[in-house]
Amino acid sequence: MNRPSVLVFDVNQTLSDLSPLTGRFGEVGAPPPLARAWFAGVLRDGFALSTTGESAPFVEIAQAELESVLRPVLGDTGLADAVRHVLDGLSSLDVHPDVVAGVPALRELGIQLVTLSNGATALAEALLTRAGVREAFTHLMSVEDAGVWKPAGAAYRYALEVCGVDAGEAMLVAVHPWDIHGAARAGLRTAWLNRDGGTYPRHFAAPELSSGSLVALAAELA
Question: Is 3.40.50.1000 the CATH number for 6-17+93-221?
Answer without folding.
Answer: yes
